[in-house]
Amino acid sequence: MAHDDVLAIAFDANLHTSIARAGDPMTPFQASESLLLPEGGAIDACAFVDERTEPVADARHGAGRRHVVRGRSAQGIEKTVEVAFFERYPGMAIVVASYRNTGDAPLAVAGWRNGAHELAEAPGGFWSFSGATHEDRRDWVQPVDEGFNQRNTLAMDASDYGGGTPVANLWRRDGGLAVGHVEIVPKLLDMPVRRTAGGASIAIEGAHATTLGPGESLTTQRTLLCVHTGDFFVPLELYRRFMRDQGIASREVPESAFAPIWCAWGYERDFTTQQVLATLPKARELGFEWAVLDDGWQTNEGDWAIDLRKFPRGDADMRAFTDAVRAQGMRPRLWLAPLAADPGSDVLHQHPDMLLLDEYGSFQKVSWWNALTQCPAYRKTIDYYVAFVKKAIGEWGFEGLKLDGQHLNAVAPCHNPAHAHAHPNESCEKLPDFWNAIHAAARAANPQAVVELCPCGTAFAFHNLPATDQFPSSDPLSSWQVRHKGKTIKALIGRGSSYAGDHVELSTGGQDFASSVGIGAVISTKFTWPRDTDRPNPGPLPPGGFVLTPEKEALWRRWIDLYRQHMLPRGEYLGALYDIGFDRPEAHAIAKDGAMYYAFYADAWNGPLQLRGLGKGRWRVRDLFHDRELGVVDSRASTLDAAFEGFLLLQALPEGGNA
Questions:
Q1: Beta carbons within 8 Å of 551's beta carbon, 6+ residues apart
Q2: Which of 204, 230, 247 is nearest to 93 (CA)?
Q3: Measured between alpha carbons, how far is residue 201 from residues 29, 94, 115, 168, 486 in Å?
Q4: Residue 594 burial by CB count (10 A; 0-12/13-18/19+): exposed, middle or buried?
Q5: Which residues, listed in sequence order, are joined to residue 99 by a DSSP beta bridge?
């Protein structure tokens, strides 16, 4: 048996495994590690041969123990499973399986499967988290209802959607399982989660079609298996800590990364500079500190040349624009969609060698702009964008970048012969290096520059983390997405991270600042003022448009003031206190400056609320939005009766003290 104080993995005579959490069995013996065969078969039973346990002293991960089990199948495949536990990551094991053909004949294989387990049905059912990207931009956190079946691929789900955080999670009310990989570069694996006749299952798989000749071996990527209580937050935190120790971690971000954001996208592509500049005084008056010049400043995607209809003097007018933003006491940020080149653009004509090509010589398309994808692992592509970033920040005077587009998260394998890739997957695996080069160029031009990465609608690609200062909720489809994406990002980045709720106009109802403020997200808007866009043929606008009406302004001032007064993004998000799937009402907690902050969400609630995580003693509780005292709670009970509709934002202060 391989184990630490939280997770135990037992092997039977066929090298099937059962798992237990803190001594409580979670699964019977199951075929957890398998060699997949063509036509759907698998080699998943290997007669036990021997085992050994040895200490581990890893320079990055510290002390631990490794359990090695070996077996042999009827087909002549020798299977070895290594399971490593490290003291720093309780409840998480790192699993590597290898398969060697000891027979005389070659064996065709389709790939491998690790961490395959089925949890039995339990009261309340199941919830799941997927770090993979789906083209339909579905929720990352979902109930596992009847018929639920997600492949959760980390490869391309469409020509411009793919990648993500390589962790999936399945949990019941009493706890759950997470799987993923811990390689230092992106890998094109799958993390299937599905409802079964007896419960729900999870695994991680690698499609690796090959033929194992006699004596040849196949070894899986390093995969994780984690058991936990509560929702997906704890396994994501463990994953983040493990990857941090491998050198992939969030960086210290400038203080301005927490400043409220106004974006000119409310005027869309046909904006005029007069519209944008005329809105700045109102944005600054409300407390917004960033002004984002969005899509439409350029002639096309790819050339990134200034549209002279809007900036007639070119570079001089762009510098005048950034000066005008600073004159209002705000910071200018520039929108950019790297790696996209429009048909008809000069760069596509002059540098077709930059394009990413598939095995048939076809392009990878970026659907939103009807553009073509450039290869991020090609030196000329990198140099091209580094030069532009240095110009935008160093010459034009922008203080930040908004890198935007669903295609930024991942790319397909590249077969362009001009790139001389060592293997086609270099384009996928070296995408983080491209973003690191962009970030380094921005900081070289301005050490306080802020780089925002918005992979529209996709699950954030974890390996891009070191090159990013701010993560928006990437075009959320609802307030629920703003909140559960926020919980995800905070687990992956840690304390002090800059997560933005994206334009509040994208939240449910179009003005739900409560979802951003309550979870510690930077607030953002794209309001227009004093009227909506006056384009002759505007696109569809939501009811009431984007214009900042007097009614909106009164409400928004209250939220902006609360945000700036308490600055919850600078606090510690305590994601392990509440289960976002099973706890009702939905709850989030943040500790900051000796105070505890709680945000509760429900259509309507009238009953007890649990204020978890309070220190010893008595705490005064205040409803921040309605500015009223709700009474005193004792940490031994920590329950408060309350009624609300939509949301309730609370501050708890030690009685007799100030935060």
A1: none
A2: 204
A3: 14, 19, 10, 11, 26
A4: exposed
A5: 79, 218
Taking the CA of residue 255 as centre, how many other CA atoms within 13 Å lie in the half-sphere pointing to its CB?
2
User: How many other C-beta atoms lie within 10 A of the C-beta of residue 531?
Assistant: 11
- How many CB atoms lie under 10 A from the CB of residue 198? 10
Query: What's the rounded Cα separation, in Å, for the pair 74 and 34?
Result: 14
**Percent helix / strand / coil, the chain, rounded to 5:** 25, 35, 40
| Radius of gyration of the chain measured on its C-alpha atoms | 26
Q: Which residues contact 21 (CB under 8 A, 6 or more apart)?
A: 6, 7, 8, 91, 175, 227, 228, 229
Amino acid sitting at position 236: L
Tokens encoding 566 = 């308490």
Q: Express each pLDDT in 592-636 by its tens digit.
A: 999 999 999 999 999 999 999 999 999 999 999 999 999 999 999
In contact, 92 and 115? CB cutoff 8 Å:
no
- pLDDT at position 657 is 55
SS3 348: helix
Give the pLDDT mean for 156-175: 96
Q: Which residue has the tokens 């939280």?
A: 6
What average pLDDT does the segment 580-603 reach? 98
Nearest CA to 115 among 170, 157, 185, 60? 170
The count of residues in the chain is 659
The dihedrals phi and psi of 108, each to the nearest 5 degrees, come to -80, 130
Rounded Cα distance, 615 and 611, in Å:
11
Query: Which pLDDT score is estimated for 539?
Result: 63
Residues 339 and 376: beta-carbon distance below 8 Å: yes
Inter-residue contact 465 to 493 (CB < 8 Å): yes
Q: Bridge-partner residues for 83, per DSSP?
A: 67, 95
Give residue 58's identity as a one-letter amino acid code: D
pLDDT score at 116: 98
The helix/strand/coil state of 549 is coil
Which of 1, 27, 28, 25 lies closest to 85 in space, CA to CA?
Answer: 1
Q: pTM of the full predicted structure? A: 0.96
The pair of three-digit structure tokens given for residue 203, joined into one six-digit string: 């695994």
Task: Say how far apart CA 204 and CA 168 lie, in whole Å.
Answer: 8
Q: Dihedrals φ, ψ of 393, to 5°?
A: -95, -45
pLDDT value, residue 463: 96
The H-assigned helical ranges of 346-429 are 346-350, 379-390, 426-429
Q: Decide if 644 contacts 605 (C-beta within 8 A).
A: yes
For 304, the token pair is 């990134």
Residue 1 neighbours by CB distance under 10 Å: 13
Report the C-alpha gap between 122 and 110 in whole angstroms: 34
